[in-house]
Structures
1.
Amino acid sequence: MAKDRHSYACTQCGATYRKWQGRCDACGAWNGIVEEAPLGSARPKGLGKGRGRRVPLVGLGEVSATPERLVSGIGEFDRAAGGGIVPGSALLVGGDPGIGKSTLLLQVLAGLARAGRDCVYISGEEAAAQVQMRAARLGLGDAPVRLGTATDVRDILSTLDAATPPDVLVVDSIQTLFVDSLDSAPGTVAQVRAATAELIAYAKRRGTAMLIVGHVTKDGQIAGPRVLEHMVDTVLYFEGERGHQFRILRAVKNRYGAAEEIGVFEMTGRGLAEVPNPSELFLSERAEAVAGAAVFAGIEGSRPVLCEIQALVAPTSAANPRRAVVGWDSGRLAMVLAVLDARGGLGFGGADVYLAVAGGLKVSEPAADLAVAAALVSALTGVPLPADLVIFGEISLSGDIRPVSHAAARLREAAKLGFSGALVPPRTKAGRHGLGLETCGSVAALADRFVDTAGPARRRDPRSGVAADIRERVGDRHG
């Protein structure tokens, strides 16, 4: 009789091992490998002599019927999903607990149901009365949505097969479901993988658009969304800080649309409200003429978004100055500071540096380098940037400022919001925008702009190595 084989899986990435080990070789996570239920019998080593069914093959040039996308009426969600939900696709919405995933999908499902689509909501976390109470609070009680509560995948599929397949199915959440053929507990990697595979097979077979909710716990033990990313067609992450009312729905994977597209929402007492112009929202509380503040014209997906980057440089006597970053890459900040020191002659080694992107937005593109550098130099010198100036550009290790893509779209968005000037790299293809452009070719030229404005000041020459710099005057002013 064949012996049962024990297997172990990483809760972070889903990699499997034949024996337990402390560190996952695939993702590098520690203490995340857990034991899965042993297989009942050994699998045969081959397909045998049995024949499978013949798979139809088609040519690349053959035109097939394109299914019509399901539009929910919530523009920001439809934008992030690539223009709507494709029938027969599987869409995953991931995020931290309490961020608003269930509220968003309930509003989306209500919009689709009111548009005449047959919609089913399966809840594995809440009772039907709880979902009904939330719908009443959001003003969605009259939406013709069919509601059910279940955690057994067999029961869910039997219920759906007994009637006409719905147009849209929401499963909230995948971590609560289980397949009764497995002995492991709900939420484990094996159960999440098996339950998702069964539901996706039903969605592809019946042409039902399926929206799956997946979340991670506060201690990070269950990594459902990371395992599911390879199985679903679209992955949307719902991001946001609990201290901010803004929520960002970001597409990190989309087989039917552009990735990195975002939708912006605002959490209100009546649910999530769309923010059609996020640039105006992120800049609505700007203070006039504050040192260390710069407006960055970025691109999120296909949408230009303007946000404020704030920097604070404070003298310190500590041996290791502090570097704190919110909303940007800390490694990128270290590179910009090193380039400003080596190529621009500014010394940040004896000061604490704090950098934040206002409004809870997370910026990842290199085009923000010049705006970050301008905010840092402004905070160091105490010279504020003009309030009607936008900045973008990429900084190289040589200290040069390089052009970035979509410059015309960035400038048009800035002109639409009332900005009159822009600090851009040389050779920028601007197009028609109506802004006054000022080019900046290097970080040394950027530093000269602030030093000339502040008046005479000593600055370290990067070629001579003289140690006197502008921090002496800044330290005297703070003292």
2.
Amino acid sequence: MKRVMFCQMAMVLFLCTSLVVPPGLMAQETKEEPAKQEGPAFRPEEIDQMVAPIALYPDELLAQVLAASTYPLEIVQAARFVQQNKDLKGEKLMQAAKDKDWDPSVKAMLGFPDVLLMMNEKLEWTEKLGNAVLSQQKDVMASAQRLRQKAQESGNLKTTKEQKVIVEEKTKVIVIQPANPEVVYVPAYNPTVVYGVWAYPAYPPPPIYPYGYAATAAFSFAAGVAVGAAWSGHGAYGCGWNSGEVDVNVNKSNNFTQNNYTNSQKYQKSSQTGQTGQKQNWQHNPEHRKGAQYPNQNTAQKYGQQRSGSGTRPTTSDARGYGSGTGQRGSGGPQTSDLSRGGQGASDRSGGKPQTSDVSRGGGRENAMGGAGNGGNERAASNRGQESRSSASRSTSSAGGSRSSGGSSSRGGGGGSRGGGGGGRGR
């Protein structure tokens, strides 16, 4: 009797629920749930913190740095190239890199080697800046203007023999240009000083200077860099302050790629309007991201990359290519901590894409990890060795030998584990 009453009550509750919330509506809500938009990844104080070290760069160099920061892996490769060719400068350095397929914004950084090396040395900052550019470009541009205004109000941003500081009358936009169009002076300043009292004590700006320089005053300059269209991309990039986006000058960009790439056609940007001399909004090229993870799910989908799992970053072991114990290299993206150590890639491990762990360590693990893809074969060989050693051990034990089969089996099993899991570290 009690069981019948219980079933009747359950049926009544089910009917009430069905009447209150129609099944179709429940299905619709469930279907629409994944479509929720993610909020901003970075707060204004965080963006000010990361933009502070470069906000006072000349407009065209600032835009070039912002674009290049979205390709952290190629920044590492280009910086290593500079360090390996210390005797080459300017046009000779660019010609030596002619066959490199880095993004034009990255290759153009060879014209400013001190800034490039700084970006490589502070790679965690570079990657974070690039992520902000990709997901909140307008906020990044607004931050640069906000910081320029603070520096000007503090008396640390003014026209000098190295630069021109122009304030547009209507918009109050602050533009910074080289005093001599053929020579660019990179400013060296302490961000904790040049902007006056910092508004966000919890987010102090990092003291990042051009490589090899340190700020000796509130605002100073590193050595001037001669620029020219034949070997430098400087001038192809600009700050679209009104639109809040990085601009690319079509003519200069095309001229740069034609002169500095073996296969320049793949890097050409043609005017959508069919006119020449037009500026366009800069477009990030995901091909040159080289597998580095995007900052959030929305940005990943925007550039045609699906982030691993449910929109979270992969674990360190996954990112380095260990997968889930299958003996095969995974496809997880690079991590900042791995990128920051320098190194060169193992492009033969995952469909031609360099792995961050190799780029980050100078290629030192290439030989040690070269057999990772053959983990199954090595485990099989290890097992055969283990069985052989175990048989030998049992024979020795029965003959009065001192070595036990248990010890030999344990040692053999350990070797098998190294051979299968490490993929090349077998003894």
3.
Amino acid sequence: MFRRFVISGILIWCALGASARTRLHYGGTLRLEVQGDPWQGPDGIARRLTMDGLTQLDIAGTVQPALSSRWESQNDDHRWQFWIRSNVQFHDGTPLTADAVALSLTQSCRYRCPWTKVHAVGQSVVFTSDLPTPDLPSQLAQAKFLISHQNAQGTLEGTGAFRPAGFPHGVMVFTANDDHWSGRPFVDTVEVRPRRSIRDQWMDMGIGRTDVVEVPPEMLRQAGQQHLTIVASRPGNLLLLQIENTGPLANPQIRQAIALAVDRNALSNVIFQKQGEITAGLLPSALSGYGFLFSCDRNLNRAQELRSGATPPQLTLAVEDGNAAMQLSAERIVLNLREAGFKVQLAPVGGKTEADIVLRQIHLETNDPRAALDEIAEDSEQHVSINGTDIASIYRAEKDVLATYTVVPLLYLPRAYAISERVRDLRLAVDGSPLIADAAIEDTK
């Protein structure tokens, strides 16, 4: 009996010790490193830290209330009314009002908006549009529609879970907003080191200098081999070619020949190490359900037939984002097009050359098929007309866009991060953005 008592005591002591080592608590500093500018782009982490939208998407992609507590559709989705959450303040103490929301949205969206007019009505904001917008709540969760206001010094203030607190020694510092409408975040401080190469990020992770670093899709396998703890999103970054439809490329047959000449399998297998999803559709298959209807096969013979007799002069292909994987992808696409008989040169990195073809990525923020197609069409400057909310209407609209061959989808790629051992509960939003406000630092005391 004495032996059993001792063993039980040891087991209880070990369990308590393990619990103490992994107990979550409020406090601490979470350190991140990124390649780009945290304030720029739809995936700029600083904007998500400091600003909120009228709506937000949960990790399943379902629209949830944020700065608006509720909303309703009227007049067959031509009119939407969003009621503003009460007792919310911007970081400088200015109350959040319907007028401030309407002004922010007017300033952030000056053209190609999903609404015709936005204005305040009492404690609500009303959107009206010439066309029905059944996906407006999902669209309003996008980063470009986050709400801010300009203070007396001309600086933008948000309502987010963290406040900007300075930029010492090249590090962006954000402190917890104790009065955030959804509750205080776990960590006291977030430090973001911008414009760090992937190599430098991984070195800093190795010496314990940072807690969260980026993992490009082409390096996911390598990260696994190094036994890094990875959090990854669904494939949500669309790699595509955007082709001019004027001058030497005004002939749609020539653009179709370019689309048929590209070897998607080589891009996926060789450069991106079989990460992501090969696609010839604008929407991911998991979102649309009909991705298999668009052929991803390369057809070099057909490309040569379409080009025959109408070969354009020298073409230029440029890369929108000059990282190594994108540059390698562009080089391989140039070889594909030369095999089809095109004369193509690759624009110099960082150059200002007017390109006939651009290789670029579109960051998909929503999980709603209609809103996603609207988002892609706007980002790629395509006209899309969706006559209905059913999947058949969305398919017809997508097919019409693809038939112009001014956008050629290639791959859908995931977003991923490596995290240190002391980070707990870091999850990714549906678009792959890290949900910093929900993460915590392990208490080792």
4.
Amino acid sequence: MLDKIIVDNIIQNALKEDMPLGDITTDNLIDENSKSKAKLIAKEAGILAGIEVAERVFRILDPQVYFKANFKDGESLKKGDIIAEIEGNTRALLKGERTALNILQRMSAIATKTNEYCQKVKDLPVKIVDTRKTTPGLRYLEKYAVRAGGGTNHRYCLSDGVLIKDNHIQAAGGIKKAVELARKSIPHTIKIEVETETLEQVAEALEAGADIIMLDNMSYDMMKEAVKLINKRAVVEASGNVSLETIYDIACTGVDIISVGKLTHTVAALDISMKFID
């Protein structure tokens, strides 16, 4: 479920960016009382995400708009599918077209990519999660899209959980010291995750009492050794060099979670268009 207040804020910012002083083309060509019909069409196969956001774009511009979604978020699309049918003020449809499509294409691309990764390991007891490698200002929508594609969210922001990475370890004076400092100050409800690159660091993180241990850029053999060493005393996350070609082998090492930056930072927009009809 999307929070309407957050979604509206994102949309309002996007519309202001796209037409800070109005739409000089539409406002000079189209009568303000003109009505039109349009369809959102899938130009390629994928997983839909963001249909409610797209609807909200048009509803902000025309509160009386008719918007019929033929698919729900998380559902599969085939090339040529009519995703939605729209009828409303022509100016509103034209002004909202690019913003609605940009968001819908981006979110659907993320959902599609996430689903591809999830399908690779569907028979294994592992979760596919995202990262903070998101588009500034769109993290809320992009993380929702990951869920629509079958994935799970990692922490939403730096305020959500303690993740002690290599630079934190260096600056704090070691893993044990870093965990001690964090544990001393944070609420008891917050978990601590430590990024490790060697088996020695894994052992140190275990001794320090880390709740989650990230295995960063380790070989398959080293990950297997780390999982064996941890022996369910902490949640194990694999990260780094994860691709569609490597994810199954990574999952087979016995890790609990695999974080994939590519879910959000290197996706190509799913091809969706809006066409006016008679």
